[in-house]
Amino acid sequence: MKHFSIIMSVAILGYWSGSATADEVDRELDGDFLVKVMAIDIAEIEIGKLADKRSNSLQVKDRAGRLVNEHRKSADRVGLMLKNRQQSIVTGFDKNLLHLREDLGRLQGSEFDREYLRWTISTHQKEIAMYENQIKNGREGEIRSFAQEHVTVLRDHLRRAQELLKDIN
pTM higher than 0.85, yes or no? Predict the structure, then answer.
């Protein structure tokens, strides 16, 4: 299964001329984290909705539904932080996510379940590493606090997806 990536363009309101100050660099670090989180949340929501249609397993559908709801909550909170920072994003799916959605859309039942759960596990492993980096290196307290709170949710998502994959194999 291809790994996905979402590329989103970021437009930070206001342009810097000359070299950036340390505060501006820190703001950009935190802003990049928020943009990446939003991209992942959108991907989890879209692929999770596909699971409701393509899976035959009530366990997988239930897990996907919970992920959709939790990633919607995360996206709402991240959206508010972006708004408060006066940072806008241009959203859209890149071709890799479109291909992933298309590829998974061709699968049905247990074959879909295995690939969906493998993707979920891989995505959450990368996401946890990104959150841990933000906790360690982020500068804005609100964003670090969000990362600290949410990383435990992501670890739970990962653990449950791994358990479910074992159960269905």
Answer: no
> Which domain covers residue 145, as residue numbers?
9-168
Residue 3 lies in a domain: no
Q: Say how many domains are in the chain.
A: 1
User: What's the 3-state SS for the chain?
Assistant: CCCCCCCCEEEECCCCCCCCCHHHHHHHHHHHHHHHHHHHHHHHHHHHHHHHHHCCCHHHHHHHHHHHHHHHHHHHHHHHHHHHCCEEEECCCCHHHHHHHHHHHCCCHHHHHHHHHHHHHHHHHHHHHHHHHHHHHCCCHHHHHHHHHHHHHHHHHHHHHHHHHHHHC
Whole-number percent of the chain with pLDDT over 70: 81
